[in-house]
Write a structure and sequence with these properties.
Strand content of chain C: 15-25%
Strand content of chain A: 25-35%
Structural class of chain A: alpha+beta
Number of domains of chain A: 3
Number of helices of chain C: 5
Shape of chain A: globular
CATH topology of the largest domain in chain C: Ubiquitin-like (UB roll)
Strand order of the largest sheet of chain C: 2-1-5-3-4
CATH class of the largest domain in chain A: Alpha Beta
Largest sheet of chain C: 5 strands, mixed
Number of domains of chain C: 2
Number of helices of chain A: 21
CATH class of the largest domain in chain C: Alpha Beta
Chains: A alpha+beta, B alpha+beta, C alpha+beta
Structural class of chain C: alpha+beta
Helix content of chain A: 25-40%
Number of strands of chain A: 30
Oligomer: heterotrimer
Distance between the termini of chain C: 56 Å
CATH topology of the largest domain in chain A: Aldehyde Oxidoreductase, domain 4
Order of helices and strands of chain C: EEHEEEHHHH
CATH superfamily of the largest domain in chain C: Beta-grasp domain
Largest sheet of chain A: 7 strands, mixed
């Protein structure tokens, strides 16, 4: 196995982060004490859509401990507007105030900010701020948003259609006409929210003397965040430091610079006093970015054997009221990678993204989560329609090893992936034939078992070439530095933002591997923009490939210099006979490696304190910097298989078994990767069964607490069995592919396909989520199973 | 989500608590376990001017025999009820129900009196109290009164408790000798309030049903005891058909409402399912 | 309404501070006692992140007012294990990767330090039942369950290895 050629990459190391986190000595945003800091609390619109007529803050200002009340008008003077206008065909440019001045666009939209001595007083005062609204009719569904006469969420746009992309590859229409059959399917995904257990929060400390802002915030992308923050405040990037401490989960909710955070920064500068904000859970459910809510429809032209001759995809996404992110981004990725592991060259898509009076959307772990459900659900629909085995249909259409590298209809190139292998491995592990036999006999007893298969091709790391081709401004590169200290210990950094992924441990492995030291003497520094190099941060699943890859390459550079110095010291003409091993320089005599008598500490001492002894032309010190541009796109793949039983009387779903065969190439830390897989699957299953942000017809958010927004607990989730495979990617450092989101995609598809397999005898299909017992019972009621 | 300000009182005796309640009137609220009131106050859905903390009244945390009854003090925590040997022996329905309340940590704090006074329509203890015909002892300064469980609950979140009254204790009738009990509920997730819950006790005399009690929650603003239905199914042999007919009868005897998320029809179907399940399990215990 | 003098007994020490009666125990521990290991995740008793022990029993600190706790003994995560000397449960969590972002972790440790005292031989079902009062968004719970099982075995004195 390719993993075996590495000494540290792939090793089981319990995490370095654990001791402080287990003993309650982590340092999250709310744990940071800032003497004299004031507390912010936002006044939020109770209406989904309303003009702000007047704000009377005097009753709040009169209350004890209240220092200030700011509104959108104040912030407009202190900050720039946000313009979201990537040069993409079909995407409308939009602008956003720091805080609304004219109208509120969703229930929870902030309209004023109270600054007081503590949060209790701030909340008391916020209740007293008198805002007069003129309620406007609200747009509360995507279909309503598409109607020409619907109220406009953004009055600068001609309609609520924020983005519309369509493309056709190959010949779709003629294939549809001449097909043996056209199978149509619907997949309606519901609105969800990220729900990190730690809500958002920030602390703004303005140094009036240095004219410098230190901004503590839990962020996945420290440098891009800083650049944006400085720009919005009309400060130079030299005037802003962003420090991200321990973060209690991000999942995509902690990437954008939100309006609340910007408001806190601006107020701190204006008041010349530190200001802090901790979002409470109600606010997080009401006003933090949300996700998903897309309605997908496929039409598949097939022959009698189930081969897909052409595929049409339509998506409509309800994007909410504001563009915290570009409106085309998520849906575009779905459309681009939809065909996944299948050979489908005739393919068209039409993606519409609309605005509504709900919170703005943002990428939530696996923003393309609906992809595999849609593709695999389409395969199952084809199987049902033609009465073929769903596995046979998949085999007929799937990319084989000999087809690689495979160029998808959309131009995406798939290389070094193994969907057929993971599918066969998963089916063997679940004993597919045995399941079908058990299913048949169970049906005779009125017990409904189902098995769902979902193969995922996960786009993990986006390179700059991808962004450019997609018309998205931005870079896919990452940056790293490695410094060997005079004492021989190693410090290293990159631009990633940790939110629980175990970077300190996994990235230590990457540095250790590249340099030739034990991971225990490597310290990873992340999150502080004065320290970390300018990288693009953590999003998608790029941590392994981009962060680990850059550090690995940088550490290789470090090793090269170390060995060159060692060679010089040992009087050798070249370093060919030298290697680094666990911090020691070893020399090869015949075929034996022996300790040379020099360790890293000796080389470091020379480099820092005795530079005259260095090789001719070599500069002192052992500090290295590297940037790395990953390939346009890197993929990993997995196949999820889920066995469920559905109670026909109540519609309740129980899990009998859940397994996944995954191939994420070279892994930095198997322990971390396994944990990521568990967490991703858990999020996918929880979302498919329980979570639902619901707005009523007036735009009132009905999911205002954790009693309404249901998240799976330990009791609802099955045991996850993982079969690990490791086919390295030939184009990335050490063959790393990355993973973290595929589990969400696979879980969503696997559980829905399993449920549909279970209820198939009733002649019904679940086309939407969440798969509540009530919904399933509604489908089955009155139907006689055959 | 911080609560609004309040004055805090901590009576050392029941008499003191009652005196405070009488004096302060309806602006004051009592707090026991805080598992229901706490969230409401943090969300500012409740904002009493005074909070009277009953937790020092430890003499109200007890489970004891009182003749034909099991008496439980108002400050008894759910975990104490769930683990009490007396409850297990004399009131197994209550034991089963108490084990399902919330989660392990919640059961350490939530109390019998608090749960009943809060009167959530889906609460387990109210369903058991109504099904078994429990009675509550209510006290105010200088007097007390006994109220049947069925009369104690007026509507959702509403009881007959006067502003100056407290629940002192609850008496549950001891189970009969040949009686088995089963408490079954259906919820979205473990630990959630039930969508529908069923409490059932069955006693046999020879091969026939001598006594039957059936209660359902989630189909009305308060739990319902289906006394007439239960009565009409006594005296027969409890075979499969009997169970099915009883379950169908329960389904037809309840009139839940549509609430947007969950249809009345679904609640009826759950009622039928859960009655069949609960009664089936109770019978299986008897037939061992 | 005004701030009152409150004395709490936390981790064996008496700590006196001034606060309003409405100040939540979670906030008082964090701000007045300077013990930030107890985390706030929801403030309505669902997520369990704020779980501490009150007289040895688990309680949600967000559903208790600090002033209520006078005369009681509070234990927070800071009293369990320390750098270089983790408790049996903490050690098992570490070995079996039972935490990722760590935000829910103190609440889980406190819940199960108590639970394992009451239930030295828990089944997986019992563990998942008790764990259902703590929400975790990162781990999918599986490794946490395994860690609790391992800790229980070790606390019973059974010889067991660590991770596979």
């Amino acid at each position: 196995m390719a993993q075996d050629k590495f000494r540290h990459i792939g090793s089981h190391v319990p995490r370095k982060e654990d001791e402080r986190l287990l003993t309650g000595r982590g340092r999250y945003i709310d744990d940071i004490a800032v003497p004299g800091a004031l507390h912010a609390c936002f006044v939020r619109s109770p209406h989904a859509h309303a003009r702000i007529v007047s704000i009377d803050a005097q009753p709040a200002l009169d209350m004890p401990g209240v220092v200030a009340v700011v509104t959108g008008k104040d912030l407009a003077a202190w900050t720039t507007r946000h313009r979201m206008a990537p040069p993409i065909d079909g995407l409308q440019a939009v602008e956003m105030d720091t805080m609304p001045t004219d109208k509120a666009r969703f229930q929870g939209d902030p309209v004023a900010c109270v600054i007081a001595q503590d949060r209790y007083l701030a909340e008391d005062a916020a209740e007293q701020v008198a805002v007069t609204y003129e309620v406007l009719p609200a747009v509360t569904s995507m279909w309503q948003a598409l109607e020409p006469a619907s109220p406009r969420v953004d009055e600068t746009l001609p309609s609520n259609l924020l983005s519309h992309q369509h493309a056709e590859h190959g010949e779709v229409a003629s294939q549809m006409q001449n097909a043996h059959r056209v199978v149509e399917s619907v997949f309606s995904q519901h609105r969800q929210t990220h729900l990190p257990i730690e809500t958002r929060g920030c602390i703004a400390v303005w140094d009036e003397g240095r004219q410098h802002l230190t901004f503590h915030v839990g962020t996945q992308v420290p440098h891009p965040y800083r650049t944006t923050l400085a720009g919005r405040l009309r400060l130079s990037e030299s005037q802003v430091t962003v420090i991200s401490p321990d973060v209690g989960g991000g999942f995509g909710q902690k990437i954008a610079l939100y309006r609340e955070e910007l408001a806190v920064a601006a107020v701190a500068r204006h008041l010349k006093r530190p200001v802090r904000w901790r979002e409470d859970r109600m606010e997080n459910l009401l006003a933090s970015s949300q996700a998903r809510e897309d309605h997908c429809r496929t039409r598949a032209a097939v022959d009698a054997q189930g081969r897909v001759l052409a595929l049409e995809l339509e998506i409509v996404e309800d994007f909410g009221a504001y563009s915290f992110y570009p409106g085309n981004y998520l849906a575009r990725v779905v459309a681009m990678i939809l065909t996944g592991p299948y050979k489908i060259q005739n393919y068209s898509y039409d993606v519409k993204v609309v605005l509504s009076n709900k919170v703005g959307n943002g990428p939530m772990r696996a923003p393309m989560s609906v992809t595999s459900w849609v593709m695999e659900g389409t395969m199952d629909a084809i199987a049902r329609s033609l009465q073929l085995d769903p596995v046979a249909v998949r085999r007929t259409n799937m990319i084989e090893p000999g087809d690689l590298p495979y160029t998808m209809a959309t131009g995406e190139v798939l290389a070094d992936i193994t969907p057929r292998e993971t599918m066969e491995a998963a089916l063997a592990a679940i004993d597919y034939e045995d399941f079908r036999a058990r299913q048949r006999s169970a049906r005779e007893r009125g017990v409904y078992l189902g098995l769902g298969i979902c193969t995922v091709v996960e786009s993990t790391t986006y390179g700059s070439k991808f962004y450019k081709a997609a018309g998205i401004p931005g870079s896919g590169h990452e940056a790293a530095w490695v410094r060997i200290e005079p004492s021989g210990v190693v410090n290293a950094s990159c631009g990633l933002g940790a939110t629980g992924q175990g970077y300190e441990t996994a990235l230590s492995n990457a540095v250790a591997e590249g340099l030739g030291v034990d991971p225990s003497c490597v310290q990873i520094q992340l999150g502080h923009t004065d320290v970390a190099p300018y990288g693009m941060g953590s999003r998608g699943a790029r941590g392994g490939t981009a962060g680990g890859g850059t550090l690995y390459l940088c550490a290789l550079d470090a090793r090269a210099k170390v060995l060159a110095i060692a060679a010089q010291r040992l009087g050798l003409a070249s370093c060919e006979s030298l290697r680094m091993r666990d911090g020691r320089v070893e020399q090869q005599f015949d075929s034996q490696w022996r300790d040379s008598g020099m360790g890293l500490v000796d080389v470091a001492r020379t480099a820092y304190l005795d530079p005259l002894a260095l090789p001719q032309g070599m500069g002192p010190g052992l500090e290295f910097h590297k940037t790395y541009e990953p390939p346009p796109m890197t993929y990993s793949n997995s196949t999820h298989v889920c066995e469920v039983r559905v109670d026909a009387n109540t519609g309740a779903i129980a899990f009998d078994r859940y397994l996944v065969a995954e191939d994420c190439g070279t892994v930095l830390s198997p322990v971390v990767v396994e944990g990521q897989q568990h967490g991703a699957i858990a999020m996918g299953l929880s979302g498919s069964l329980f979570e639902h942000v619901e707005y009523d017809a007036n735009g009132q958010n009905l999911s205002g607490s954790l009693a309404e927004y249901l998240v799976a607990t330990a009791h609802e989730l099955p045991h996850f069995e993982i079969i690990s495979m490791h086919t390295p990617n030939k184009a990335t450092p050490a063959g790393i592919k990355g993973m973290a989101e595929g589990g969400v995609m696979g879980a969503i598809g696997a559980v829905t396909n399993a449920v549909n397999d279970a209820i198939a005898p009733f002649g019904v299909t679940a086309t939407r989520q969440p798969l509540t017992p009530m919904y399933l019972r509604d489908l089955m009621r009155g139907k006689q199973p055959d | 989500m911080k609560p609004a300000a309040f004055d805090y009182l901590r009576p050392a005796s029941i008499e003191e608590a009652l005196e405070q309640l009488a004096r302060l009137g309806p602006d004051a609220k009592v707090i026991a376990g805080g598992q229901s009131l706490g969230p409401m106050m943090n969300m500012r859905l409740a904002a009493p001017a005074q909070l009277i903390d009953l937790n020092d009244l430890t003499e109200l945390a007890y489970v004891r025999e009182a003749g034909e009854w099991i008496e439980i003090g108002a400050l008894t925590r759910h975990c104490q009820v769930a683990q009490s040997p007396l409850v297990r022996k004399f009131c197994p329905l209550l034991e089963q129900a108490a084990q399902t309340i919330g989660h392990y940590a919640i059961r350490q704090r939530g109390t019998m009196g608090g749960s009943l006074a809060h009167a959530d329509p889906a609460a387990q203890l109210a369903l058991v109290a109504i099904t078994l015909g429990a009675r509550l002892k209510l006290v105010r300064t200088g007097s007390h009164r006994w109220v049947e469980a069925a009369d104690f609950f007026v509507s959702a979140m509403t009881t007959v408790l006067a502003p100056d009254e407290l629940v002192l204790s609850v008496q549950f009738p001891k189970a009969a000798a040949q009686e088995a009990a089963s408490f079954r509920m259906f919820n979205r997730r473990h630990g959630d309030y039930a969508i529908v819950a069923v409490a059932a006790t069955v006693a046999l005399a020879g091969e026939r049903v001598a006594a039957l009690r059936l209660g359902v929650s989630g189909v009305a603003p308060m739990p319902r005891a289906l006394r007439e239905l239960a009565q009409s199914f006594c005296g027969r042999t409890p075979d499969e058909q009997w169970v099915a007919q009883l379950a169908a009868g329960a389904r037809d005897a309840v009139s839940p409402e549509d609430d947007g998320r969950i249809s009345a029809l679904y609640r009826r179907e759950l009622t039928q399912s859960l009655v069949a399940d609960a009664v089936g399990r109770a019978l299986a215990k008897l037939q061992k | 309404m005004d701030k009152q003098s409150i004395t709490l007994t936390v981790n064996g020490r008496n700590i006196e501070f001034k606060a309003e009666p409405r100040k939540l125990l979670s906030d008082a521990l964090r701000e007045d006692c300077h013990l930030t290991g107890t985390h706030v995740g929801c403030e309505h008793g669902v997520c369990g992140a704020c779980t501490v022990l009150v007289d040895g029993r688990p309680a949600r600190a967000c559903l208790t007012y600090a002033i209520q706790m006078e005369g009681h003994e509070i234990s927070t995560i800071e009293s369990v294990g320390e750098h270089g000397a983790l408790s049996v449960l903490q050690q098992a969590m570490h070995e079996l990767h039972g935490l990722q972002c760590g935000f829910c972790t103190p609440g889980i440790v406190m819940t199960f330090e108590a639970f394992l005292r009451d239930h030295p031989e828990p089944t997986e079902e019992q563990i998942r039942d008790a764990l259902s009062g703590n929400l975790c968004r990162c781990t999918g719970y599986q490794n946490i369950v395994a860690a609790i099982q391992l800790a229980a075995q070790r606390m019973r004195g059974e010889p067991v290895g660590g991770p596979r």
